[in-house]
Amino acid sequence: MKFFWFIICLLFPLIDRLSSLNIECDYASAYFEAVGDLYYCDSKYDLDIFSRQSATIDEAVGKHGYGKTGKDVGAIYFLNKTVKYFPQAVDKLFPNLKAIAIWGGGTKEIHQSDLKPFLKLVHFILHECEIEVLEDGLFQFNPKLKYISFHGNKIFHIHPNVFDNLKNLSWLYLGSNKCINNASENSTKSVNSLIPVVKNKCKSSEFIHFDEDLKKLEAGIEKGELKNFKAEFAEFKTKFVSSAFKDSYTLGSRFDKLNDYLTGLNEKIYWTLLDKVEALDNKIEQITRGMKAGEF
């Protein structure tokens, strides 16, 4: 018995290490547009993030420059590294970030809550990812932003107020997206001229209603309001299918979001709901496949 516990004690740190999510950095200095020279973390590897619920970064690994610490890191950079969901708790490791750049990471979505900790953010890039929507108040807590790029995503909706509080925004790249292919650079005047074009080209209220409904459903689960879960989820399913009929282009995106949410429930171990969730999820999947095949 003592030998058994001895083995467990040896294995526990290893198991804990394997279950944690770390970012391994090469540290260097480079010039970032609108900010200047910054000491930054260049991520060496992909981040194995499978849902928003599993996106918390536990540790930054790598050898700092002489006399440097995490507090000196002004930027984090992902070049052709998979980052499907925006990493969480990065601000705990690097509290003074002014620049965040993800190039070709496959990032699916970005939310106000993701960016809320970065009050000093000046330079923000999600280049050639999978972003489809820029939500209401996305940059509410990032008023210092001067440089934004969403070039080469799949954006079809941009909420009209997204850029309203960014008085110093001088670079805005929205080229090669579904609803827009425009950019303005090195001039607040030029950006201000682009904003009305964005508002006109990228309107899509249907998706926003869907997003809000999903957030309400998730909030109910988080608070433990589970009594009417089956009925609420069934109602949500009906809205999901109904709205998909109106706008078939958004169907794939909506189903991906729903699947991610259900996966999150499983990871949080809501086992009592699992059978109900899976049954309803299967129904939605059948309907979705039928619609894609033109059966409905």
TrEMBL record:
<dbReference type="Pfam" id="PF13855">
    <property type="entry name" value="LRR_8"/>
</dbReference>
<protein>
    <recommendedName>
        <fullName>Leucine-rich repeat protein</fullName>
    </recommendedName>
</protein>
<dbReference type="GO" id="GO:0005615">
    <property type="term" value="C:extracellular space"/>
</dbReference>
<dbReference type="InterPro" id="IPR001611">
    <property type="entry name" value="Leu-rich_rpt"/>
</dbReference>
<dbReference type="GO" id="GO:0031012">
    <property type="term" value="C:extracellular matrix"/>
</dbReference>
<dbReference type="InterPro" id="IPR032675">
    <property type="entry name" value="LRR_dom_sf"/>
</dbReference>
<keyword id="KW-0732">Signal</keyword>
<feature type="signal peptide">
    <location>
        <begin position="1"/>
        <end position="20"/>
    </location>
</feature>
<dbReference type="InterPro" id="IPR050328">
    <property type="entry name" value="Dev_Immune_Receptor"/>
</dbReference>
